[in-house]
Amino acid sequence: MTSIALCTINSSARSIARLCQVSRSAHGTADFHSFVARYSTLRKCAFLPGGKWSFIRAGTRQMSQASPGRISLGRYGVFLAAGAAAVTGVLTAGVSHFQRAEMATKISKVEEEEGNIRERCKSFMSVPVTDIKVLEQRKDAMSARMEMLIMETQAAFCRALEEVDGGSFRVDRWSRKEGGGGISCVMQDGKVFEKAGVNVSVVFGNLTEEAAKQMRSRGKVLKGKDGKLPFCAMGVSSVIHPKNPHIPTVHFNYRYFEIEEADGTKQWWFGGGTDLTPVYIDLEDAAHFHKTLKEACDKHHPKYYPDFKKWCDNYFYIRHRGETRGIGGIFFDDLDSPNQEEVFNFVKSCAKTVVPCYLPIVNKHLNDSFTPEEMDWQQERYVEFNLVYDRGVKFGLATPGSRIESILMSLPLTARWEYMHEPTKGTKEAEMLEVLRNPKEWI
Q1: Which key words tag this protein in UniProt (predicted)?
Q2: Which of 38, 220, 237, 431 has its CA 20 to 30 A from that of 11?
């Protein structure tokens, strides 16, 4: 294990250095030490000055030093610490307190991570959809815990994208008269991103018959009362369209669904995933992306990654072209076992990968040159699956009161279809099509 090299550090800095080396944070944050150390055969991924993740070819982990005795964590602090208040608390109590927290029960960890709802809300892009007082009253309910998770995921990803782009997100709150609403964050025509959308929705009401039919077709046995099926659905969804064709498009979605049946019992399930759609293949990018997801999955079950990777390849498949949408990732739906707590913890691990699996790739290709022909090729990808097959788009369009702008924010600003376009054999475009037509294992 490689040590962290720091110069002129005082006791406070040493405490933070130790904190980065502990295998898991007491505040449920991503482990910087294992994150950097995981790439032995690839370029190392490190947190560089300016608060950016990037690939490097060094054997030591690097951290920017803002001033003597002080380490700069940048704007990805959600993955390194639970916020300034949490870091202060750890430094005050000392490492022994941190080690004791590691030995605490799962219940106490949940309380520590999820207890102070009002304080956590301060870091969000907007106040939550549900009133904060209601969330505090129902803080142990899964619907409240999931809403806090998707709000935190939205904020972490938006802050990371703003850091690399230099722009800012427009934040729109919207409401649905049938119940609930959402928060759409969109950055359009920025320096790096043509369009970046990160949407949170929390809706409730009664399922329409069309939506109920879709669920029954997936094997759900739904018993309503007087033709009504009360439901609650929430999730965070993001699609990022970069300007540079050498920076891939990324998509992620994590959601929770709950239905109350006629006898008052509830059915619930989680769904989601993260996948990458490059325009040109980069083997190192693919390995980094999939390895990050695999490590999150492996914390919970050794079969999750291979099963959900295969599910992703099968789901994001454009049948009329015989191609996958991209190089995949993970995808799962209707996940309701072994129990609610275990599945929620798995979803939480997946949600915390969205920055570290994507931002290193963005930073790596920021200054890549590209041609008009490569931009044309970029504009022929991605759109068709969303418009024809995507289950979330179909459900949203079938739900009364849904906000169309939020459903279709996944589309790029520009797209094109060239008649009978088949790349010349041996070109980078032909290489990309070969991968899309024959999905492969990346790690």
Answers
A1: Heme biosynthesis, Oxidoreductase, Porphyrin biosynthesis
A2: 38
